[in-house]
């Protein structure tokens, strides 16, 4: 079943062109289009999946997070720190390995990394390089801290 995106008021709707049924909406076109791509990734043809995928909600969140990262990068924001929950990443090595899988660097304020009671922090750049910060929760175990680079 194909899906399309259209502007309606302040929202971008995801809908089925044949029936007009609205299946979702987003505040930005890029996030709505990301949702359509995620839906196709989880679609079935003749009862078989077009591709193996995680559950649809997880896939849509992952695609939307990547779109948001791209939009931030285009406007002068960079990832400053990656925060890993100790609930899933039990050792510093687990967190560092995941950071590497994500294509992140290993700069930290201490060579071995920062930690508190519940998290590991893998800094990408020193905080003093940035003028403001915002966080982005990727999933229940990973949060990114983005910073606007000083001019």
Describe the structure using short key phrases:
151 residues, alpha+beta, 2 domains, 10 strands, elongated
Question: What's this, in brief?
Answer:
Helix content is 28%, strand content 34%.
Low-confidence stretches: 48-54
- Shape summary: elongated
Mean pLDDT: 78
- Count of all domains: 2
Question: Strand tally, please?
Answer: 10
Q: What is the N-to-C succession of helices and strands? A: EEEHEEHEHEEEE
Proportion in β-strands: 25-35%
Strand order of the largest sheet: 7-8-6-10-9
Structural class: alpha+beta
How widely separated are the two ends?
A: 47 Å
User: What's the story with the biggest beta sheet?
Assistant: 5 strands, antiparallel
Helix share, percent? 25-40%
SS summary, helix count: 3
Radius of gyration: 19 Å
